[in-house]
Amino acid sequence: MGKIFVLMWLIVLALPVQANWLNDINRKVRSLAPEDAQIAKPPSALELADYPPQYQYERVMAPSHDTPLFVLQAGLEHLDTVVLIHGLGDLASKDWLKVIPALAARYHVVAIDLPGFGLSQGAVFTYSPKEYAKVIEWVIGQYRHSGQVRLVGHSMGAAISLYYASQYPGHIEQLVLVDAAGILDRTAYIKHLSTRDNDQADLPQGIRRVLARVDNFADKMLEKTGTGFDPTRLFSADSSLRNMTIGEQTNMNAALALMEQNFSVLSYSQLPATHIIWGAQDTVAPLRTAYALQHVLPLSHLHVINDAGHVPIKTHTQVFNSLLLASLQASSTLRPLRTTNLSQRVGRCFQDDQTHFSGQYQQIILNDCKLVRFDNVDTQQLTMNDSILHIVKSRIGNMGQNIAVTRSVITATDTDIVGRMKSDRSRFDFAGVTFYGESPVFVSQASTRLVLSLTRIITPTQSTRLGGSYVLAEQSLESAL
Length: 481
Description:
Structural class: alpha/beta
Number of strands: 20
Radius of gyration: 24 Å
Strand content: 25-35%
Number of helices: 14
Distance between the termini: 34 Å
Largest sheet: 12 strands, mixed
Oligomer: single chain
């Protein structure tokens, strides 16, 4: 591994910062190629051996990148069009073969192999959501029928579809995201991979407290690396370096480009009605991602398949097809507003004598509690000392008041934080979190680390979308942006 990094550095030093000679050569060679080199060859019988014969297939040149694109069509008699975007892997559009028959009975179906995948192999460019969105825009314009257009993406394809919908508002009537990958900040994702489920473990509470401390220490180390040197960013700085080293390694190219995309800064306010379908046991794209997306998508509905993993399309085909068809025919509505909190209830935890909270509270106080979880909590005040807290679907704080967090850790998902949060030697992992209040909404009094995904700050004078890792000393979060 050390030799690889040395080689990468030598390549970087050998290439001028603005050197794009590899791209220049590629463009010149292609410009001198014979005319027929720019014509996509039709797929052969051997290439179509695994595809049903009743569908229509072609390989065309996508003008957005002058690259061959494989297109499958079914249900040609229908007016409404459903476009399917696959994820990583060699199968590409084949991943949808168990889904297409159910869709084709009601919709015109268009499934493509993204450039560089499947029968569209041969593309040379950065396989980023931005570039793939251009391909999708051309496909929709070229193949849509006269009715509505719905876009369905799985895994990486769901992330690309989400990016497309944000960049081309009004071009589709509905969006369906299936186990979208690459949405969370990379540090949050790595932490997910390394975390055990102590909350569900059949262990004595004392042992669970020790394990929580161990996991907390591991998370702390991962968060430190998240703000340090990242060798993958070398490829981001120079497209020639990327193309020379991994240009033809499709999955690596696409995965790296996906990891580079900051989905937190996209505008979600104009996205169409969105249905989110997720496998509860997904270890590739954690269910937490779905809750975070639901938080920022104004018109969204979440469907969870309890015993499914990352690919419910294949493992739970019948259940998935039923949910997909129901989603395509349903409308999404705004999430209901929370009721006014008039509770006088006070919740307390000392050394984990109470670990689960739900419902409305006037105040919650946590002291030396390592296993605390808030589910659908609405509390006007929160005070934490030496504690570890997981928050889901909650509302914390009140306008004009402070939330005091000292030597503690908070992981929050799909949560509103109201007022001002004051941190003293604490750490935070927020995904799908919105701060409401007067600026500054978050103040570090000493040594604070934050990992942010799909996070927003809304004050009377500004609305800010942000994601990434931050280290704060004695300062506000706004001052670090």
